[in-house]
Amino acid sequence: MVSGKLVHINAGNGECSYASNSTLQRRILQEAKPVLEDAIKKLFNNIGDFPKSSCFNMADLGCSSGPNTLFTLSNIIKIVQVLCDEKSCKMPEFQAYLNDLPDNDFNTIFKSIPSFYGDLKDEANCFISGVPGSFYERRLFPSKSLHLVHSSYSLHWLSQAPEKIENNNSIYITRTSPPQVFEAYMKQFDKDFSRFLQLRSDEIVSGGLMVLTFVGRSIPDPYGSLSAFLELLSKSLVDLIHEGIIEQAKLDSFNFPLYAPYNEEVEKIVQMEGSFDVDTIKFFKVNWDERDNINDDDVCFDAYSSGKHIARTMRAISEQMLVSHFQFGDSIVDYLFERYAYHLTCHLLVQKGNFFNIVISLTNKK
């Protein structure tokens, strides 16, 4: 495996699975929903007789697995239904493509589809397909076949970690990282996101839209809350080095394949690539522990409970990647995330953490 290349989330429905530890991502979907609603309203106006056309084709890129996957699809269908009721027009049929990496747990998704169809009843005809593949590497759909592309909490993941990072002493960008570390991450995101826009422009009809949500930064300073979040995981790995469980060389060769772009970086890349117009770009924060809704940014309601919860969420996302690189056994993985929960708790006792999120709506110009 190439160091820091995303593998897949934890499959199934067990205690450490993504399906059981993705309430943060559900919260993100709910926060971004108003932008999705506005985008679909605009889509109705952009495309002639739509939705009188026979089928509404959409894709959810980085769909993952678990309850959130079909929750997104259900939201889109409900939004269209409201618009059709307002316009006194017939509901279109829906073709929904669910995309993620080939090792994604598509089987769990497919097993839940019959109950999803049952919930729809006669309200809509929806046809669901799984589409395995990286959305950075190649086109995934026929030319000009999609009306809407949706992606939530996937595009901050890079196709791979930046190469040739040296003397960083961490798995991500820290306050003491050399400038070339930040530059390498920024260039990798620029390359990946530009390629993503190019490929999707070929797949989306003229006037079709994308709604994308991902972790970002509100300031140019590359060190943000995501950096602090990953620095605590790096500390946990260092604990394992001090105890002789892993070697320093293993940590030195690992870089996390994730980047939180500054909002102006995102707009600049869209402008430079040239295929899309930016309709809407909005920002919102969600606490590391999305259950903690206390407004005081400096006080965590229960740091111990939050530390454990956040560590489980991170384990569901990153365990397979860490195991692949460090060759951990089950007991070591358990211990690593116990250490991570401890470091999170210590941090939260001093200051609450949050993620700055970007949601952007784009119209295809081609």
Automatic annotation (TrEMBL):
<dbReference type="Pfam" id="PF03492">
    <property type="entry name" value="Methyltransf_7"/>
</dbReference>
<dbReference type="InterPro" id="IPR005299">
    <property type="entry name" value="MeTrfase_7"/>
</dbReference>
<keyword id="KW-0479">Metal-binding</keyword>
<keyword id="KW-0808">Transferase</keyword>
<keyword id="KW-0460">Magnesium</keyword>
<dbReference type="GO" id="GO:0008757">
    <property type="term" value="F:S-adenosylmethionine-dependent methyltransferase activity"/>
</dbReference>
<keyword id="KW-0489">Methyltransferase</keyword>
<protein>
    <submittedName>
        <fullName>Benzoate carboxyl methyltransferase</fullName>
    </submittedName>
</protein>
<comment type="similarity">
    <text>Belongs to the methyltransferase superfamily. Type-7 methyltransferase family.</text>
</comment>
<dbReference type="GO" id="GO:0032259">
    <property type="term" value="P:methylation"/>
</dbReference>
<dbReference type="GO" id="GO:0046872">
    <property type="term" value="F:metal ion binding"/>
</dbReference>
<dbReference type="InterPro" id="IPR042086">
    <property type="entry name" value="MeTrfase_capping"/>
</dbReference>
<dbReference type="InterPro" id="IPR029063">
    <property type="entry name" value="SAM-dependent_MTases_sf"/>
</dbReference>
